[in-house]
Amino acid sequence: MLGKILLRYMRRYRWLLLGVLVFQFASAMAALYLPRLNADIIDQGVARADTGYIWSHGMLMLAVSLGQIVASVIATYFAARAAMSTGRDIRADVFQRVNSFSEREVSQFGAGSLITRNTNDVQQVQMLAMMGATMFVTAPLLAIGGIIMAVQTDLGLSWLIAVSVPVLLVVAVLIIGRMVPLFRLNQRKLDAVNRIMREQLTGVRVVRAFVRERIEEERFRGANTDIMIVGRKIGSLFVLLFPLFMLILNVTVVAVIWFGGIEVNNGTVEIGTLFAFMQYIGQIMMGVIMSSFMAMMIPRAAVSAERIGEVLDAPTSMTRPADGVTDFPAPGAVAFDDVEFTYPGAEAPVLSGISFGAQPGETVAIIGSTGSGKTTLVSLIPRLFDVTGGAVYVGGTDVREADVEALWKSIGLVPQRPFLFTGTVASNLRYGREDATDEELWKALEIAQGRDFVEEMPDGLESRIAQGGTNVSGGQRQRLAIARAIVHQPQVLVFDDSFSALDLTTDARLRQALWRELPEVTKIVVAQRVSTITDADRIVVLEDGAMVGVGTHEELLETCSTYREIVESQLGVDA
User: By residue range, what is the domain housing residue 190?
Assistant: First the structure.
């Protein structure tokens, strides 16, 4: 999966990668040439007191060093550009893929895990791309080229390479092999920390209301300790790895000095050649260490790439036809045809045998006891979920055959828990339609019974809204969410228990304004209060996921015992 993802994204920047290869090759060749120059200066210049030779070859050595630095800087720049662009592209694709998910897939992965996959996991792959592009040529050239140059410099000491390099590789394989499962475990522990943190921030009011701060602190402390323990194990392996590398390198250098000193003493090797051999040994070891460092990063990046691939390749229940219908024959019409829906893993459907319709301009209300499936039912209209049986039609077209963008444009949804984004009142309302004028925003607020409190805000439409709308009351948040849906100018308005936080007077004024100002818009209203739906054109009564009645308020009082019980419990027997 790691290779597939890197190939898929980095091939877009092949010209940058070609530049990386060229300049890394030049840098490595310069690095391999420098010890030979250094040996010549010592043997031919210093040993013979030839100042001119020292100056001429010293300047050449300086020029080669500068060339190496320039080539290395350019290669690193190209590698950074390619790697950062790759990370950006992966994040964008993961984000777009998550946006295509239905609620089913989001629940399957979990919001915390999806956030981790698009941040930390992408960063791991991005870092490997960066280090890989930087070391891809340098590490093997230093290792292999260093071996060749060392053998050419002094064949008699080459046996030290045959001993030290395999030992270095064995140490790397043993330690890195133990890191692989720890990297996988670390990502799962990170998911858990993110999930708990997100839950505590989102549910902070519930935590405080039930005095659960200490318990939640312990819960977070446990998850935090778990990831600390795993991280400590990984860190201990890192701490062990590099000292072992340096020990092997230093022992090898000491051996070179010891055995090389004997050769120098015997007159078979010159001092400059011995110094060059030592430098080549260092380059060989550096190449092996760089390769080992890459090998350490690969398992962690592979785990992250696998998790990213799970998101990118996850089948979504919300299919998007390539040539989806964009022109609906009957704008605003909504129909449920023998609809059934079952949650993944559930033994029984939560909705079954649902059939009713709403014509353009009509108001259809849905009522039922808690858990009867009301929210699930209206979630099928904008395809937050897809039916598992039957069909839902909007504008005469099966929503699964419609172009998703066209479908969403025709529907305005006010969810059960309205959410506002960080910004201003205006930016939140224009989330429904970016080109809406201030006059249209005020009109929508007037219909939603929100104009009064927005006018009282310090900056009116430009007043700040905190994330989630936490700086406004629940009723104000609901009215702003309703106004946002109105600004959207949809053909179908879906209210999922959107009047529950409003007092009865505001509720009544809001409904009258909606019916009066938006007479051609189809309205689907989920409600708990009977007073909210008594004037609906039709009322659908749900019980245990099935329709037990449909009709007007008066008709249902006579024909539906479930509806009559709801009315009597709220309005009294004489209602």
Answer: 2-312
